[in-house]
Specification:
alpha/beta; eight-stranded mixed β-sheet; about 550 residues; single chain; binds NADP nicotinamide-adenine-dinucleotide phosphate
Length: about 550
C-alpha cells in the first residue's frame, strides 16, 4: 500500500467523486474549486510536482509570452494581491514558484498523486463510472476531468541513426531538472518555433559553437522584456477586477499595451502604416498583431505586416545570405506568433551557424553530429526544439474507451470531435479542460482554464442537485460544433499554412484546425448552453 492509500497492485481501487488527470494550472484549480463545493477529488499527475507545462519546459530562456500581471489566476483576490511578479514576462522558474505557492496555499498536494501515469481509461456502462488504471493502482470515479494540457506530449521526429549519437540529446519540453551546462560545447538545435526562438540566444551565450537546423523560418517580434515597474504592478493590483473583466472581452483573453486598431491595414497609407507598426515593434509583444483589425483575416493586409517584419530581419541580420534564409514567406501569424529577445541578432555572432533543411531535410544523425545533404555538422550535444503532438496527443495516449468500449482514438480518427471543447459524444461524464474545439491555445491560457473549470464545476453542482448520474454531448450537437469550429477557422487565415494548430507537424495526423478562434463569443455560447438546461447534452 502506498502512503496515499492506493494499492500499488491494483487490488483496492481508490474511489472518488471526480478524478482529475494533470496537476498543471487546470488540474490545480479544478481540485481547489471542486473541493470547495464538497466533492471528493483525486488528481493523478505523472510529474513529481505541480505546474504542468512549467514543470517540464525548463529549457534555457523559457518564458511566458503573456505578460505576468495577466498570466495568473483571478479566482482569489487575496492571491492576486500577495504574489509579486518581477518581470514584464515571467520566466519559467518564477511561474513554477507561483504554481508551487498556489499548491501550498490551498493545501492541494494532499489530493494529488504524483509520479502516477495513466495507462488505460474505461467507462463502465453498468456502474456509470470511469475506471482509470495507472502504474500505481486503479481509480474509480463517476466523473473524470482531463486537465492534461494542450502541449504536453513531446514530438521527437524520427531521424535515422539518432540512437547512434554519442552526445547527450534533450527535448525542450522534457528538460532535465538539474539544468544543462553547455559551456565549451558545440551544440545543435533542431527547430525554430517559439521554444527554439527563446532558447537559441541563451544557449548561444553559453556554448562554444551553435548550429541551428531550420526547416521553416519563423516571424518573430521583440518581446521587450524588462523588470516589472513597481508602479505598474501596483496599478494592476488596484484595478484588477476591472482589468480581469476587460481581459474576458478580448479575442485572446488578454489586454494589450496599445488599443486594438479597428481599421484595415490594406487601407492605411504607407507612412501611417509604417509609423503604427514601428510603434508596436518598439512596445513589444502581441500588441503588434492587433495593429489593424484584418491582419488575421485578409491576405493583402497580412502581406503588408509580413513585409514589415521581413524588412526588420534584413535590417538586423548582417549577412544577406543568412538573412535570406531566416526570412519567412508564408502568412504571418498563421503559425503561433513568436516573441523573442535578440533572436535574429544572435545570427550575427560568429559562432552561430544556420543550416537550412527546408529543401534537403536532415539525412540522419551520426555518432558525431547531424548529416544534411551528405555533409556532417559535428555537435557535442543536440537539442530537439521540435514541438508537441498538440491538443490530442496526450488524450489519445491514455487509451480511453467510452460507451460499449468505443475507443476515443477511433472516434477521433478523422480529427478531434467535441462539443464546446468540453465533452465528447459517447464518453459520458468526461470533461476536457481547454480541449480541441475551444479557444484554448489561441488565448491567454489561464483565463481560458478558469472559464472551463468554472463551467465544469457549475455543471457538476447542477447534476448533483438534479440527481442526474450522467451527462454527455448528443451526437448532433457534437457534429454541429465540429462544423462550427471549421467554419469559424475558415473565415481566418489560420488554415493557410502548416502549423501544429492543424496537426500538420505530426506525420500521419489528420489535418483539422483544432482550436476555436475568438474567446468572448465562445464564453457567451457556453453560458447560454448551461442556462438552457445544458442544450446539446443528454442528462440521465
Ligand atoms: P513548434 O512551434 O511546433 O516548433 C517546432 C520546430 O521544430 C519547428 O520549427 C519545426 O519546423 C521543427 N521541426 C519539427 N520536426 C522537424 C524535422 N523533422 N526536421 C526539422 N525541423 C523539424 O514547437 P515549440 O517551439 O516547442 O512551440 C510549441 C508551442 O508551445 C508554441 O507554438 C507555443 O504555443 C508554446 N510555447 C509557448 C511559449 C511561450 O509562451 N513563451 C514558449 C514556447 C512554446 P516546421 O515549422 O517546418 O514544422
Amino acid at each position: 500500500m502506498s502512503s496515499d492509500g492506493v494499492d500499488l497492485n491494483g487490488a483496492e481501487p481508490s474511489v472518488h467523486d471526480v478524478v482529475v488527470v494533470g496537476a498543471g494550472f487546470a488540474g490545480m484549480y479544478m481540485l481547489h474549486k471542486l473541493r470547495g463545493l464538497g466533492f471528493d477529488v483525486a488528481v493523478v499527475e505523472r510529474a513529481s510536482g505541480v505546474g504542468g507545462t512549467w514543470y517540464w519546459n525548463r529549457y534555457p530562456g523559457a518564458r511566458c509570452d503573456v505578460e505576468s500581471m495577466q498570466y495568473s489566476y483571478s479566482f482569489d483576490p487575496e492571491l492576486e494581491q500577495e504574489w509579486e511578479w518581477s518581470e514584464r514576462y515571467s520566466g519559467q522558474p518564477e511561474i513554477l514558484r507561483y504554481a508551487n505557492h498556489v499548491a501550498d496555499r490551498y493545501d492541494l498536494r494532499r489530493d494529488i498523486r504524483f509520479e502516477t501515469t495513466v495507462t488505460q481509461v474505461d467507462w463502465d456502462d453498468a456502474d456509470n463510472q470511469w475506471r482509470l488504471q495507472t502504474d500505481r493502482g486503479t481509480y474509480l470515479a463517476r466523473f473524470m476531468v482531463m486537465a492534461t494540457g494542450c502541449l504536453s506530449t513531446a514530438n521527437v521526429p524520427h531521424f535515422d541513426g539518432a540512437e547512434t549519437f554519442e552526445g547527450p540529446t534533450y527535448h525542450t519540453g522534457r528538460w532535465p531538472h538539474e539544468g544543462v551546462d553547455f559551456s565549451g560545447l558545440s551544440v545543435g538545435v533542431i527547430g525554430t518555433g517559439s521554444s527554439a526562438i527563446q532558447a537559441i540566444p541563451v544557449i548561444a551565450d553559453e556554448c562554444l559553437e551553435l548550429t541551428v537546423f531550420q526547416r521553416t523560418p519563423n516571424y518573430s517580434v521583440p518581446a521587450r522584456n524588462e523588470p516589472l515597474d513597481a508602479s505598474d504592478q501596483a496599478d494592476w493590483k488596484a484595478n484588477y477586477r476591472e482589468r480581469r473583466a476587460r481581459m474576458l472581452t478580448q479575442q485572446a483573453a488578454m489586454v494589450q499595451r496599445l488599443p486594438d486598431g479597428e481599421d484595415l491595414a490594406k487601407e492605411a497609407s504607407a507612412t501611417e502604416f509604417d509609423e503604427r507598426m514601428q510603434e508596436r515593434w518598439d512596445v513589444g509583444g502581441f500588441t503588434f498583431y492587433r495593429a489593424y483589425s484584418d491582419i488575421g483575416l485578409d491576405a493583402e493586409s497580412n502581406g503588408r505586416v509580413a513585409e514589415f517584419v521581413r524588412g526588420k530581419i534584413a535590417g538586423i541580420v548582417d549577412d544577406p545570405e543568412t538573412a535570406a534564409k531566416l526570412t519567412p514567406h508564408n502568412t504571418i501569424a498563421c503559425k503561433r506568433p513568436c516573441l523573442d529577445t535578440n533572436y535574429y541578432e544572435t545570427f550575427n555572432l560568429s559562432h552561430v551557424h544556420l543550416v537550412d533543411v527546408s529543401e534537403t531535410p536532415i539525412d540522419r544523425i551520426s555518432a558525431a553530429g547531424v548529416v544534411v545533404d551528405g555533409q556532417e555538422y559535428p555537435v557535442d550535444a543536440l537539442v530537439y526544439a521540435t514541438g508537441f503532438d498538440a491538443m490530442t496527443g496526450t488524450l489519445l495516449r491514455m487509451n480511453v474507451t467510452g460507451r460499449e468500449g468505443a475507443r476515443l482514438a477511433d472516434h477521433w480518427d478523422a480529427g478531434p470531435r467535441t462539443y464546446l471543447g468540453l465533452g465528447v459524444a459517447g464518453f459520458p461524464n468526461m470533461f476536457t479542460v481547454s480541449g480541441p474545439g475551444s479557444p484554448s491555445v489561441l488565448t491567454n491560457m489561464i483565463p481560458s482554464i478558469e472559464q472551463h473549470v468554472d463551467w465544469i464545476a457549475r455543471c457538476l453542482v447542477d447534476l448533483r442537485e438534479r440527481g442526474a448520474a450522467t451527462i454527455e454531448p448528443e451526437a448532433d450537437a457534437e457534429a454541429y460544433w465540429v462544423d462550427y469550429v471549421n467554419a469559424v477557422a475558415n473565415l481566418t487565415l489560420f488554415p493557410t499554412c502548416n502549423s501544429w494548430y492543424l496537426g500538420a507537424n505530426i506525420p500521419g495526423k489528420t489535418r483539422v484546425f483544432m482550436p476555436l478562434p475568438g474567446f468572448p463569443p465562445y464564453v457567451e455560447i457556453c453560458e447560454d448552453v448551461a442556462s438552457d438546461n445544458y442544450r446539446g447534452f443528454a442528462l440521465a
